[in-house]
Amino acid sequence: MRVGIAATIVAALALAGCTGDTKPRAGTSASAGSASGTAPSFAPGAAGAGDPYFPTYGNGGYDVAGYDLKLKYDPATGRLQGTATISATATQDLSSLHFDLAHLAASRVTVDGTAATAKAEQNELVVTPSAGIAKGRKFTVVVDYAGEPKALVNKDLGPGGWQRTADGGFAVGQPESASTWFPVNDHPKDKATLRLEMTVPDGVEAISNGVPGPRRSAGGWTTWTWTESKPMASYLTMVAIGQYRVRSTTHAGKPMIVAIPETLPENGPADRSLALTGEVADFLATQFGPYPFDSYGGVVIDDKRVPYALENQSRPLYGSVFFRSVDATVVSHELAHQWFGDSVAITRWQDIWLNEGFATYAEWLWQEHKSGRSVQQSFDRAYGGIDWGLPIGDPGAARIFDDAVYQRGALLVHALRKTIGEGPFFALLKSWPAEHRDGNVTTEQFVAAAEKASGKDLDSFFQGWLFGDTPQPKP
User: Fold this and answer.
1) Cβ proximity of 345 and 358 under 8 Å
2) Co-location of 301 and 397 in the same domain
3) Of 298, 319, 346, at which residue does a domain stop?
4) pTM for this entry
5) Model confidence over 374-422: pLDDT tens digits?
6) CB 139 within 8 Å of CB 26
């Protein structure tokens, strides 16, 4: 995420939980007991992922492989309705399980085709199947639901999720958003694939993550299809519905989808900035390794409620505030997140510097490449304005998007470069996202990777840069 000029960060939504980087596909096989061969001991899945910062976000007891959504949205009434098919695996013997679902009501729920009991509890949907689900069993939950979606508000971070507009609506937010438009295990460590069919009135566009599929129309309605086949953290899901100029091309053999609101001037700064997406992504690939997803693009939102940009997987979203003039700096930030934050996602929100520090450093790399301002000059410019009192390795839930997390994180990255040397550093920039592609990581893992790449003991270095409360030495 990157905050717009003179704007506060708008971001907050549901964090979910689960374990493991590999997402099994849904199936029907089941064990009569646990892996040890003992009789199942069924119990409810946790109503929270247990994240230290947001312990009630997300849920426990299962691991989602994929979401398949068939939805219909009417801009005239603001009503959303449809069906979510969720493929998952039990990580414990489950008697019931929770999904995050805010402001929307389920009318029918089945588990593996059999009717289940469903109950709404404080922005969660509690599902009790007709029989327990044994640990290790793959299962499928189908939820029919409807209602008028709207945002959730975090008292420290602001609103996030579904926002209605005059011509449609959009869903975006960090750390939570997805639960305002579909039932979800809403935490970054439970990454899953997404397939979306969104039906809207003819003449209205519906943009989402991933590769576009066939579009069909009937009875005055058009169904748009999108598929993100790589595992994705739930807050990175997005949908934008309204009047957009949609440009569909290809880049490096992959679809490139760019959507600009019709309220912005044609061929204006927003169009020309996002037209640089391919060039920026290609440059970043020379620094970080191959682009990790099957499509490129971006969406601009022309709405005062969005004074930020967000790294939605394969299709970043940008508030129009960034495009008073042509600006690829914010594009470089959000595209860098495709490696650092999206493909390689955090396991807990405390480690958000791993996302924002590297994305901010990517801005410095791009500026050096394009304008000649060296990374060292960017480092020197940022160094004097840091709040050294905020430990970016543990900033606290209310300050995960503080400017110090971004800038001090980037300073740390450059200081690491100077400490371990050019060769080991740039090798690390590629090996880290390659080794953890489609997975989740922690700060401790990155420290270990940096020490392995450099052959140096870096404990004191990271302790100072992540947790020290005084200015760290300039490299």
Assistant:
1) no
2) no
3) 346
4) 0.92
5) 999 999 999 999 999 999 999 999 999 999 999 999 999 999 999 999 9
6) yes
